[in-house]
Amino acid sequence: MATTQEPAPPVTDRVKRERVVIRFAGDSGDGMQLAGARFTDASAAFGNDLATLPNFPAEIRAPAGTLPGVSAFQIHIAGSDILTPGDSPDVLVAMNPAALKKNLDDVHPGGVLVINTDSFEERNLAKAGYDTNPLEDGSLDGYNVLTAPMDELTKEAVKDSGVKGREVLRSKNFFALGALAWMFDRPRETTLEWVAEKFAGKPAVVAANTAAFKAGYNYGITTEAFAHTTFEVPAADLPSGTYTNVVGNQTIAWGLIAGAQAAGLPLFYASYPITPASDILHELARHKNFGVKTFQAEDEIAAVGIALGASFVGHLGVTGTSGPGVALKSETISLALMAELPLIIIDVQRGGPSTGLPTKTEQSDLMMAIHGRHGEAPLPVVSASSPGDAFEAAIEACRIAVKYMTPVILLSDGYIGTSSEPWLLPDVEALPTFPTSFATEINHDDGFMPYLRDPDSLSRPWAVPGTPGLEHRVGGLEKDQLTGNVSYDPANHEAMTILREEKTKAVAKDIPHIDVGADADADLLVIGWGSTYSAILAGVLNSRAKGLKVANVHLRHLNPFPANLGEVLANYPKVLVPELNRGQLSRLLRAEYLTPTISFGKMQGQPFMAAEIEAKIIECLEA
Amino acid sequence: MTSTYTRQDFQSDQEVRWCPGCGDYTILASVQTFMADTGIPKEDVVFVSGIGCAARFPYYMETYGMHSIHGRAPAIASGIATARPELSVWVVSGDGDALSIGGNHLIHALRRNVNLKILLFNNQIYGLTKGQYSPTSEPGKRTKSSPMGSIDHPFNPVSLALGAEASFVARTLDMDRNHTIETLRAANEHKGSALIEIYQNCNVFNDKAFIELTAKDSRDSNQIRLVHGEKILFDGGTKGVAIEEGRAFVVDVAQYGDDVVHTHDATLSDPSTAFALSRLAHGPHGPTPIGIFRDVERPSYEAAVDAQIAAAREAKGEGDLAAVLRSNSTWTVD
Question: Distance from the CA of B48 to the CA of which of A457, A585, A605, B184 falls in 20 to 30 A?
């Protein structure tokens, strides 16, 4: 490797690329998620459009250097609108042999590999399962390999910073980040300012990370191999406005705050820590100055019970979890449904069943959300389709819960929850409002009737403790349809069963109809829900670019469906349903509308790639 | 506080449907009398129950109430009390509901010290499901699910509550209305969670379980009344309770004098003495302490929640959503 000093090439020498996919990969302890997040912020500041995908192991810390211990963060940056974190990386940063081994197959042929040579010694090679050193045996000949002894160079760079011992090598992610910042012309101050703020109070750490970052950057400038592998990815032409980079768990938390404000209710979030939903609890716990009450419960069942208790007394009760937690909460969700109280249950889905793939994404809880309770227990189900969209989805869940006095399940997933995208900030003043009106007066000649319904929404009055004269009891036993008193009357039970179903169906009256725009005459409709939004849209756009006539619908409301969905489905000769499950939406559509859907499932714990969708569209249209 | 309520004000229009002769009737009357005497506005009172015979209780109280699901009442009530600290929140539970299916919620509510008053109706049997042994049934108990005798070792609810860091723990008897009301009053005045174990006779499936404590000819010799600040004497003052090396035992006053008799202090911060007292009897068989074991001050959960909200507002001002949305780094596209 040449290490001679050369002047930095002018920016005009940079290879122009419309889009680049970069993956940072290393051991769990190597700080790759942090490096990726910093690169993301710098790219956003630069003006690129972007999408990210973190991919970290379930183990808290698998043995260092092993394949299960590899943690990765992928980012797609582009000069034009992009939808997905990218199918395969153009650039792979591999901090150790395991990271290389685990990720190399995904890299584009001819792609760039940035490798920390210091970790490619016998022990780490053996741990990764390499018999020979891939840096020496010719197996990387098809790639553009850039190497740096990052351990040694980091040690040297930070020697005057004051960090000692094991702390020294903690800064090597900043070395790698510095090198990448050079390669992609990222603004340095975004990262350095973050370091100064994040580690304020730890001057040695600030000094070490700053020194390592600059050393990496300068290494890029001065090292010939790096210097000839620089890229220019132009700023994107995005709709004007102020943007921020968001991950879905954060936007859901913000959406809940917004939804509670819109309803004029205090927000009460009770949760038991679970991957990948815990960050919603963390985010809300930071915002107590909104009056938000967060409650870390003793278990999943307690969490939903606590939230329901809060709703009973006039707060907006919310609980968040993942699939295993929803299973535990199901009895209480049924109680909320029977008592007809607002409650939001967020399911940040992960690979299942059982403990499954806790850190990987999947859409396999749809059937559980819609049907997973004892008895006839219908409730509204809404879904988020991207990190930014999760904000609106959360507000919509709040609206439905309060207006219809019902539990609502909000489906997110690990991909939405943990990945990021630029988000055009909404105008807070223009957000919808749906003020809650509590019952304060006797509503019937015979006294207060807690189950006397609004004829349109079929919603019952919400009379909260503290309201004189409206004392009443709710509970899980079947209710008389007017008084709310316990009733074992057979006809009443049937009437109430149907009423609860009709109430859920009534939600369809105020959700938007599907608009397929100009694609009414397409040969194929691709319909999806949730986090597959971006991959499906990218696949559809790519196939349209090849002249195929493809329509696309993405559902926010999964129960009830939009009122015109049946008509829309009937309009197309073929309907393709891509999902990260074994065809759950597909089966629901078949059951509801007798549509002969084509199910396209993926069960790998990873999002769809746009190319997979495109290939399936072509296959469907050729068949 | 003077109250304009009568007991009838707390009676709902629902027909009470426990078995004739059930101890629950007496407890209901005691609670309604207590509520009327205390004068808490009834719209501020919430009764929460789980499942079981006792769990029907909220339906009979003319207050707000929720008959929830098995074992979960302490969790639901924790949400209620944390959301609205000004409410008077009562949990009605049984030995199966509180100690078996809901054991986890009970211990966590107690350790958090949420401002809940938990009434644990202990009849040492499953009544609603018609007579299986419960987590407080005595070993060897023959029931439909234990025809050869129960092999389960039972909980002592008072010991359990003390172990769960409860700040108020008491025991009373269904038949003793005055003592029940007195105990309810003390629990109500306590800030934080309170557990009252109420020995409750199930005359259908476990009749006379507490007969030693209630029968005229045996009650004086078996009821050990715990009164804060007073020596623990019973059986007409002929017997007392001494504490030695952390263990409580009954002494004959005539033989040893009353200097060795322990003076009850419910406010001791260390729960060891209260625990020792709770170990005097199981079953209950033989002399059994009745009264307030422990009544100590500890910050209550919902007050701490509100204090953090106030501190956050003090430090950061009222929440501003537009500012939060801009809390990550932002950039502008023209």
Answer: A457
